[in-house]
Amino acid sequence: MQILSITPTPDDGRPGVREVAKFDLQVTPEVRLLGCKLMQAPDGKRFSYGPAARGNRAASFTHDYAVRVTKEAEKAYEQFRSAA
Question: pTM value?
Answer without folding.
Answer: 0.90
